[in-house]
Design a protein that fits this description.
The chain is of the alpha+beta class. It is built from 4 helices and 6 strands, in the order E-H-E-E-H-H-E-E-E-H. It has a 3-stranded antiparallel sheet with strand order 1-2-3. The radius of gyration is 24 Å and the shape is elongated. The two termini are 43 Å apart.
């Protein structure tokens, strides 16, 4: 069989099986006996509004408190990896800008004049010989990017994250 990993964000609160029964959260027809009523578990609410009860042991193996940024591969969380990406990206864009061989810019507005994600964000772009690359970052990181500031960014060429990665890799290979 193939292996699968499921990721979802839920809301939960501690609740005994007896309380879950009283709130109608157990499987239809499931009535806990007296010794089960004090069993520890969690009232779980899913993004689609469905609610249920889960025993503590399987719940605590599957879920950890926090947002998606706290999810880890066992070595790094998403938050750590996004921070590394941003810092590496700033280092690359700053170096490209200082060399002056590649056009680089940052802006709080997209080419159409709209604020990035409605405000509080900016876009950085570079026109590599292998194609355009770009990323968005929160305003708190603006000063890390020491690149020319524009009123509006250049027109986005529609590249995907994978295409941007391929363009960076191709650029690195051609600069040996």
């Amino acid at each position: 069989m193939k292996k699968y990993i499921g990721t979802k964000q839920i809301e939960a609160e501690p609740m005994t099986m007896g309380d879950a029964y009283e709130k109608g959260l157990l499987q239809a027809g499931r009535v806990p006996n007296d010794s089960e009523k004090s069993k520890s578990g969690y009232h779980v609410k899913y993004q689609d509004g469905y609610e249920s009860w889960s025993p503590a042991e399987p719940f605590e193996k599957a879920y950890h408190e926090g947002g998606m940024g706290d999810v880890s591969d066992g070595y790094h969380t998403f938050n750590e990896l996004y921070r590394y990406r941003m810092l590496y990206n700033a280092a690359l864009f700053n170096e490209l800008a200082s060399q002056g061989k590649v056009k680089v810019c940052k802006s709080h507005r997209h080419a159409d004049g709209e604020e990035c994600f409605g405000g509080g964000w900016f876009i950085v772009m570079a026109e590599l010989p292998t194609g355009q690359i770009s990323n968005h970052y929160e305003d708190k990181d603006w000063d890390l990017f020491k690149v020319p500031e524009l009123e509006t960014s250049w027109e986005w060429d529609g590249h995907s994250p994978n295409e941007a990665a391929e363009r960076i890799e191709a650029y690195l290979k051609m600069t040996k």
